[in-house]
Amino acid sequence: MAGRNSGLRGASIAAVILSMGFLSACQQEPGAGSRERETPAQPVVTEAVAWQPRQVKVEAVGTSRAYKSVTLYPEVRGEVVEVSLKAGDRVKAGQAIVKLDDRDQKLAVELAQVNLEDAKRLFSRYKRTRSSGSVTESALDDARSAVERARLSLARAQVALDYRRVKAPFDGHIGITNIDPGARIDPSTAITTIDDRSTLLVTFQVPELFLGQIKEGQSISVATWANGNPDHQGQVIDIDSRVSPDTRTFAVRAQVDNSADLLRPGMSFRVTLSMEAGRYPVIPEVALQWGNDGAFVWAVQENGTVSRVPATVVQRLQGAILVESDLPEGQSVVTEGTQRMREGLPVTNLAGL
């Protein structure tokens, strides 16, 4: 019995010693277990976020007209005696296109000239004899008035003669006419058209969403519908003051240089207009991840850990994406190694090593 009791006491003492040694070891190396549980920084590749405007391309159908365009009508009725130009000819301002019979008007001008010369001679004679007292002041005033009336009659006769010629109001190209010599025309008869097509005015409709974003002087690109035709550049010159309640669009007019004379008034065009609509963060396409609650990116914080930042796609670019997100300019986002990421994970940038 004594032997068994001493053996039990020895085993108990050994157990106590082992327990004390374990506790002592724990006290000598505090935090050893916590160091073993620390997560090492994960190697990743990051890229800094930049901000840039969103480029919006608006396409519309535009209708053109000449910079100056007019349909010519005669001022008076009469018989056509001469048509001096044909369709397609270029005309200078003031050049006669159609001439009407003007024999009576020429005689009226000559008669008015004769009357004016008579009135001038009488007035001159009265002035010379005024000092002799043979001419009264009243007679002298009447003679002076007669000169003025004769001058006005001559001017009126000259205007009537000028009306017998239909002239070009500006430089341009003549359109087709159906008037031939011998035809009788009146002020309601359309003779022909004249277009100054050195510049075309292109009018197109833009959705009201872009009201305030289009400015005068903004560049546009216009192209015909024929395949292979090059684009032509234009410039916005007019913006309508109202939005149509039916179409919810407003009219914009641009001028397009046509000095090469390749385009014609009345043609329709495909109009392309590029605009900037706000500034957004731009991230590499590979940085955008998708989860159950939408798109996001892994952003590297100042303490070297990553956090999940929601991002909404605004516009896709070549190899990059504009997003609406709380990402300041210069913020680093993970582009490679995203599969291993979790909230608060420390990372190290391989590109910076």
TrEMBL record:
InterPro entries (UniProt xref): Beta-barrel_RND_2 (IPR058792), MdtA-like_BSH (IPR058625), MdtA-like_C (IPR058627), RND_pump_MFP (IPR006143)
Subcellular localization(s) per the UniProt record: Cell envelope
Keywords for the protein's UniProt record, in alphabetical order: Signal, Transport
Pfam annotation, one family: Beta-barrel_RND_2
Chief location: other
Domain Multidrug resistance protein MdtA-like C-terminal permuted SH3 residue range list: 282-340
PROSITE patterns reported in the protein's UniProt record: PROKAR_LIPOPROTEIN
TM stretches of this protein: none
Span of the signal peptide: 1-25
Domain Multidrug resistance protein MdtA-like barrel-sandwich hybrid: 69-189
CusB-like beta-barrel domain ranges (all copies): 202-275
Family: Belongs to the membrane fusion protein (MFP) (TC 8.A.1) family.
Name the UniProt record assigns to this protein: Efflux RND transporter periplasmic adaptor subunit
